[in-house]
Structures are given as structure tokens and as C-alpha cells.
Amino acid sequence: MGIKRMVGSFQVNRLKRKMNPALLTFPSALMSPRHILVCLPAGLRELTLVKQLLPTITRLFEPGDITLLTMPGIRVNDIYPRKGFQILTPTVDQLTWSGLPKKSYLEHLKHYQFDTVLDMNLEPSFFTSTILLALPNALRIGRGNHLGNPFYNLEIKTRYLRDERNIYRSLLETLGGIMNKDVMYPTLYSNR
Fold first, then answer.
1. What are the pLDDT digits (tens) for 21-71?
2. What's the CATH number of domain 34-179, 1.20.1250.20, 3.40.50.10990, 1.10.760.10, 3.40.50.2000?
């Protein structure tokens, strides 16, 4: 384990001990989100899959405003359309030496007043973990058996382990079922 990972792990664990999440009632917490933050994955394959799911995510959370948050060092302006989405990309001066967001960047995110955070990462990330811990009053949704409590207060488990398409599909289908919304999926999902 490198020194940066060790420092990042220590800082996330310190934030985790300080975390005091808000009490939410389900499914009412999902019914009228106004400001949604979607944490994008770091991998190109996963970014492409999430891009294809943006119309589904938009239908799930309409009429809320959706903001996309990229991982540090990832530029998605060439991949993702700007139409209808605000894209936040942290710069080097907004990060600590270990790659975590600085307090000033976390305060900047708090000004958006996100009430829902959808974590689309399939791999644990200290950066995303810090973002989730910095928004304790938001409904934080993520994949089950991934980070768990206190990072997520709605953890959706799936039977798929390595099939990214079906993991995302299962996550959004379950959200649609809880919200009583029919969601249409892009043609990338075909029954095999």
C-alpha cells in the first residue's frame, strides 16, 4: 500500500467516525428529489455505460436538476453531452496531496444543496467516499456489498458481480420499482 493510499484511508476513516447521517423515511425520500449528484466512475468502459443510461436516470429523477461529478483527472467533456447536465470536474488545486477533495471543494458542493447522491462507481474510491461523507443530509444511493453504511443510506444489492451492464440495470430497475416509475432502458440491454 502506497503512502498516498494509506493517508487517504486514514482521512476517510476519520471522516467516517465524525459522520452523523440524517434520518430519512423511505420511499418518501426518493419521491421528490430536487438536486441530484451523480458520481461518475473512473473507467472508460463504465463511463460509456453510464452515458447510455443518462436518459433513464433523467426520467427517474425528473423534474430534478442532475449534476455529474467526475473523478479527479478524468475529462468527460468529449464523452458526455452538456445538454441538460452540469458537469463538475475537480481541479488539482481543489485536491489534497493524497487525492481527496479539500474542505473548500466540499463546501462548494454543499452550496448546491444536493438532496440525492447516486454513486455509479463499481470500485471503492477514497475521493467518492469523501464526497458521500460530506453530504450527510442527502439520500446516498449505491451498489450493495460495496461501501455500505455510513456511506450509503440506500444500498441496492444485485446478483451480478462482474457484469457492469446488468449491475447498472439492476440498480436503476430497483430504484424505478421503489419510486413506482417505469423506466425505459437503452438498447444496450438485450436478453441473452
1. 777 767 777 888 899 999 999 888 898 899 899 989 999 998 889 999 999
2. 3.40.50.2000
What is the DSSP-derived secondary structure letter of residue 101? B
> CA 191, CA 177: separation in Å to the nearest integer?
20
| Triad 114, 129, 177: Cα angle to 5° | 60
Phi, psi of 158 (to 5 degrees): -135, 155
User: Each residue of 114-173: pLDDT tens digit?
Assistant: 999 999 998 888 899 999 999 988 899 998 877 777 788 888 888 877 788 889 988 999
pTM: 0.86
Q: Does a cis peptide bond (omega within 30 degrees of 0) precede residue 186?
A: no
Which contiguous run of DSSP H or E holds residue 143? strand 139-143
The residue type at 9: S
Domain range list for the chain: 34-179
